[in-house]
Specification:
204 residues, 54% helix
Length: 204
């Protein structure tokens, strides 16, 4: 599975740029992009180039770092997730967008996720493991479960990453669920069994 890295979440996906990546964009530019339905991206590209220079963001260096990291680590990450979830995902290639946004959106159907342009190597690796975990989770368990509400489904999805990221502590409100998952993952036969135990846990 190959990976492609793009400089910023934006030019290839206008809607996602406005929803997730507009924290650095001048409001006037955002309004113009919406008005023109993203047909003319020259001003956007110019702004992003100037922004990266002004803020000393080393785009090309970061892109090379992520590509090399992907080539080195992704086979083991994917193998571990395929073993856990007992499935494969439909992505022949993965697109990784660099973003300045503090949250990392992803789309498992379109096979892309984001990583912070400010991250260190170890952080990029953690992001890869975390976001790919979501891809496999959605492949097996979908987008919702009628037995629980959306908030609990989201909590299980996020907390599932604790299986392959033993030190991750992203959401304080999920601490008990993460600890539960770590405990049962040592005894369970796979992702489906862990998931069913999570359903019981959140329904207590």
């Amino acid at each position: 599975m190959d990976a492609f890295v793009y400089s910023f979440l934006g030019p290839e996906d206008g809607d996602c740029l406005i929803k997730w990546g507009s924290d650095i964009l001048p409001k006037k530019l955002v309004r113009e992009l919406i008005r023109t339905k993203f047909r003319n991206l020259s001003k956007l590209k110019t702004f992003l180039q100037e922004y990266s220079i002004r803020n000393k963001i080393q785009i090309e260096k970061t892109k090379k770092l992520i590509i090399n990291l992907w080539k080195e680590k992704s086979p083991d990450i994917i193998s571990e997730l395929e073993t856990l979830f007992k499935t494969t995902i439909d992505c022949k290639t993965i697109t990784i967008y660099l973003t300045t946004f503090p949250m990392f959106p992803y789309n498992q159907d379109e096979c892309w996720f984001t990583s912070s342009v400010y991250s260190r190597k170890a952080d990029h690796l953690e992001t890869m493991k975390h976001e790919l975990n979501h891809f496999y989770f959605h492949k097996v368990f979908g987008e919702k479960d009628s037995r629980i509400n959306g908030k609990d489904f989201w909590a299980i999805k996020e907390s599932f990453c604790a299986i392959t990221l033993s030190e991750e502590e992203v959401y304080d409100s999920h601490k008990n669920l993460r600890n539960f998952i770590r405990n049962v993952s040592n005894k369970a036969k796979g992702g489906r069994e862990i998931y069913e135990q999570c359903i019981d846990f959140v329904n207590r």
